[in-house]
Design a protein that fits this description.
Strand content: 5-15%
Order of helices and strands: EHEEHEHEHEEHEHEHHHHHH
CATH superfamily of the largest domain: NAD(P)-binding Rossmann-like Domain
Number of strands: 9
Helix content: 40-55%
Number of helices: 12
Strand order of the largest sheet: 3-2-1-4-5-6
Shape: elongated
CATH topology of the largest domain: Rossmann fold
Length: 289
């Protein structure tokens, strides 16, 4: 029988990932400082993170930001009788916070595994997420059966904490850039009398094809559903993190600030929206130059 896994964070992503882990045969103990209403059926509910730390050797995080990871880390290391040996962090928290968490846990004999995910709510629901893992290879091999329950593509990207974050941030930057650029291109095409579907039919067999033209536009925007399953707020956060982390490496940063500003403005203009709403935002020129 599999050992109990601790899970912290059962929001829109975490609840679905935890459910798939439960379906995979792992008993769970759940904690969430806001509420645990979305915890998988049959999971034990911890009153707080300290209780969870006393009952699970392996704990998975799905939290909003780096400060959350660090706060929980400090709670864990200050919990008497904690049995935690491994923390797997599926959150998008940026490189510095991942490295800080790794060092903090390391000084207390706990291994921190950087394992952010991509694929949105639909991928979390279906268990088809991409999981990009930064840790030692032997540690990756140990935790991969757990991660296989939540992701279809679990990939070891490097040996160090922060490298998972690096791939996640650049991936979301590319996704955001594709959405923004395709939105501007579609606005141009439709302004010249073309039907959006006709544009997509050509682009998707041509060199301009990308994730926005292949999925988001035909399935989420042509029908005006705007249900890509990823909040503008989160995309704005991820691209902002990308830009902040690029600045620490002194690598090229020409397009990042523009894309980050676009999604930040969209969130301010239409809070709580889906990130696919960037199309009407750009089409209707709601942005500030």
């Amino acid at each position: 029988m599999n050992k109990v896994i601790g899970w912290i964070g059962v929001g829109s992503m975490g609840s679905r990932m935890a459910a798939n882990l439960s379906k995979g045969g792992y008993p769970l103990i759940i904690a969430d400082k806001i509420n645990t209403e979305l915890a998988p059926e049959g999971a034990e509910i911890a009153q707080n993170n300290q209780e969870l730390a006393k009952k699970a050797e392996t704990v998975i995080f799905s939290v909003p930001a780096g400060p959350d990871t660090l706060t929980i880390a400090k709670e864990f290391i200050n919990t008497p009788d904690s049995i935690i040996k491994t923390v797997i962090d599926t959150s998008t928290i940026g490189i510095p916070h991942a490295k800080e968490a790794f060092e903090l846990f390391k000084t207390h004999g706990i291994e921190y595994i950087d394992a952010p995910v991509s694929g949105g709510i639909a991928g979390a629901e279906a268990g088809t997420l991409a999981v990009m893992v930064g840790c030692k290879l032997d540690s990756f091999n140990t935790v991969k059966p757990i991660l296989d329950c939540i992701g279809q593509n679990v990939i070891h990207v490097g040996q160090s904490a922060g490298q998972g974050q690096t791939v996640k941030l650049l991936n979301n930057f590319l996704s955001a850039t594709a959405m923004a650029a395709t939105s501007e291109a579609m606005a141009f095409g439709t302004a010249n009398g073309l039907e959006m579907q006709a544009i997509l039919d050509v682009v998707n067999v041509s060199s301009g094809r990308n994730t926005a033209t292949m999925d988001k536009f035909p399935n989420r925007i042509v029908n005006e559903a705007y249900n890509g399953g990823f909040a503008t707020k989160m995309m704005a956060k991820d691209v902002r993190l990308y830009v902040e982390n690029v600045l620490t490496t002194d690598s090229a940063n020409r397009l990042g600030p523009l894309v980050a500003d676009t999604f930040a403005q969209l969130e301010e203009f239409e809070s709580n929206s889906d990130f696919t709403r960037v199309y009407p935002f750009i089409r209707d020129k709601c942005f500030n130059d």
